[in-house]
Design goal:
The protein has two domains: 54 residues, Multidrug-efflux Transporter Regulator, Chain: A, Domain 2; 160 residues, Mannitol-specific EII, Chain A. The chain is built from ten helices and eight strands. Strands 4-7-8-6-5 form a five-stranded mixed β-sheet. The protein has a three-stranded antiparallel β-sheet with strand order 1-3-2. The two termini are 23 Å apart.
Length: 225
């Protein structure tokens, strides 16, 4: 689950000094082993998402088979798209989100809500440009073989303390069968969200059919790369 600085730099297409600068001045979590820094993939994904940095999804794939089986389009179809969610604060909005998640019977919705709020208190999960990806430090793991992404459009813009200062109107929330699946899927979602055309579609917002078509098209682009 750890990446060497050299491997991370090569995957993103930057020099090692830039990665070391992220570690020393921008708070990228890293651990020293044999006097060399290593970065945990989970920490990298969360840090990159919060700082608006694009990281290729392949970095998070344990192998090609595992990477290929996690499609954002399939998970989004499973989780559903919801419009005009009520709420005036992160708590009231996230309560509405949790009520629409397909949760395993063993997971208490109120406990999940409080965990999501505690994570927001540690640091905003806002992606920027009015989009947030609420998540807990330990991913939401469901008793199912299918991953689900819940996409919610808020009726009212809400301050999520985003790094760009913009209020949030779009929330993506994940439920996955394993931590590894969560990591792969979140990486691909973050990658898709760096596409400006896709962001424009979300802000219109487009219809459910338009959104699904755009996601599938972008996923094909990733495969071609």
């Amino acid at each position: 689950m750890f990446l060497k600085v050299t491997d991370l730099a090569a995957a993103i297409g930057i020099d090692e000094k830039t990665v070391l600068g992220w570690i020393k001045t921008k708070g990228l979590p890293a651990h020293k082993r044999d006097e060399r820094y290593q970065v945990n993939r989970v920490d990298l994904l969360e840090w990159a998402t919060n700082h608006g940095i694009t990281v290729p999804p392949g970095i998070f794939a344990a192998n090609e088979e595992a990477s290929g089986c996690q499609l954002v389009s399939n998970a989004l179809r499973q989780g559903g798209i919801f419009f005009d969610l009520p709420g005036d604060t992160p708590e009231t909005a996230l309560r509405e989100v949790v009520s629409r998640l397909k949760l395993p019977p063993s997971l208490d919705p109120e406990f999940l809500l409080q965990t999501l709020l505690a994570r927001e208190a540690l640091g905003s999960t806002a992606f920027g440009n009015g989009i947030a990806i609420p998540h807990v430090r330990n991913p939401i793991v469901g008793q199912t073989n299918e991953s689900a992404i819940n996409l919610c459009f808020l009726k009212n813009p809400i301050d999520f303390d985003a790094i760009d200062g913009k209020p949030v109107t779009i929330l993506f929330t994940l439920v996955t069968p394993s931590v590894k699946a969560h990591l792969h899927l979140l990486a691909k979602l973050a990658f898709l969200l760096h596409d400006h055309g896709f962001q424009d579609l979300l802000h219109r917002p487009g219809t459910e059919a338009d959104i699904m078509a755009a996601v599938r098209s972008l996923e094909e682009t990733i495969v071609r790369r």
